[in-house]
DNA sequence: TCGTGGTCTTGGATCGATCAAGACATTCCG
DNA sequence: CGGAATGTCTTGATCGATCCAAGACCACGA
């Protein structure tokens, strides 16, 4: 069975030894260890089935040959790839997908610990679902992680109908009857945290600058500000503004609010808007953090760079990744287990602006 | 051969039809189209071997059944996965890996067009090469894309010794004899572009703020500034500074340079340093772009948000991805073809700061 | 009529790991 | 002491697509 004699040459696993033309197979290891293929397979997948001494012998042969099970063969037999698919959108220049990039890093790290890898794919220009469809039908991935669950949520319901395993980062806003596992960050809790932080510092007129009303996430974040204000019996009339997510909009909105409602602090739905507020303050010779306080959302890369540093609500993306992988393991377990949705609470990164 | 009758139910490909318990196989398509397995295989891999009408019939059956070749089986037989592995580091909060994230997006998009997918993996905490090693030995990926080729470049030489196919984003600084394909962006050309832009505007005393001398990339960028200045017969003595890549360092260095050498413009090795310069200007009541010009590097997310917007050198990451994929296709072709390294020229995104 | 392509079928073997079932020896217990 | 119950290891079949070689069938032109 030894197709290549040189393959048997002793070699330490992590040294940069030249990769043989054809890597060693299970059979090669079996021959070298003087056992059957199945025993080698068991040594890898069910070590406790072997007697300690044979296990050691097989393990030795594996190390000497630098053997690692062929993924394709294993995938074919077990009907699973240990790959998790995740679609990423085009690189938009806005700060929006910076959060997603941070999440990808966390997800890759966490899946590694669980023995999975992340397969990235891009949306086809025409049909947004073809990417999912191809990967599913060719059984290239075991499951998906989807990230943009707002806006009608076509992927979630599509995948659900296909009975494809997936976990969503983002709650099912529109479908309360959704049965898929999801993980999300409580945006309202985040803005409430920010607002309470400001109220604790003595502010009473805390303004809100958020997104258009059709944004579910935006309305959620706004509700946290509302709740915190009303929780202390404070009025919010005239203190809220809903605009586009741009620096210019944040600047205009804050200027307008300062003139009309004299707030002493701002809570914003994004760091982008908060940067707009900082600009207005600079325009008027006001010092952020001393004269007027500002809090942003997402703790983006800009936050520590503003002058003064921008206090911002930070999503616990590492924890999100951990929960997503937990849900994935449940989905792919035997039998599959679908737990309830998981809601995580963000934290507040306090800097000079508040 | 029909293991499941319902599988033959008509179904349009992109509709969210429920995925059958076991996806259709080549044999199922063959039966439905009334041809042999071999013919179906040819329809997919060698369409020109078939008569047009049978090709159409097979294609129809494929569409009706929603068939897609099983990746694992194909990978096993053809010994290739159509996956490209790329390691990503931990999510550092600095702006350094923002460029990498932008590159990942471009790479995913470009590989899609070439029929490949990107497999992300993380570095093991202990041994940085184990990730590569495992994927190689288990033949999980066809090739790698490596991105951090500075600092002794252990991955490149390790992979070369293993005869593993890979393409580097980043030139082989230390190994002129390296034989692997690479793509890089000419940092010196970028800073020269920036410097010339400033000189064209009438500046004669253009200062440089860069990184420590042990950074190859930093010295490369610095050389472009030097070349542009000397190209017009201008002196550079006292106009350069080498510091850490932080806002505070950029601020201190620019303050010092302004005091000692009275430059009217700054070219920086990074946007982070440039933000530091902007801060010094604000400290002294100077207006960036009017009193003193500033140019950064990498066109990061901060650049458009500063006040005024930061002029910055932009790496053509989309083009880099295209060239990387071209090189990959050469490497994986029959026979493998290794072209020369490719050097791309960055562009300058001009904003208010210059 | 015989060859010559073009097109498709047939029956296999193959990739490498895992599953299902069985072989064999040892131990334990009534 | 016989039979069951383990523990340990082996054998043949299997996952689904591709590759290979040989041949069947048809149509066309020489």
From TrEMBL, chains A, B:
Listed PROSITE patterns: HTH_LACI_1
Highest rank taxon of the organism: Bacteria
SUPFAM superfamilies, sorted: lambda repressor-like DNA-binding domains, Periplasmic binding protein-like I
Entry keywords, A to Z: DNA-binding, Transcription, Transcription regulation
Record keyword Transcription present: yes
CDD domains: HTH_LacI (cd01392)
Annotated ranges, domain HTH lacI-type: 23-94
Stated name of the protein: LacI family transcriptional regulator
Protein's organism: Nocardioides mangrovi
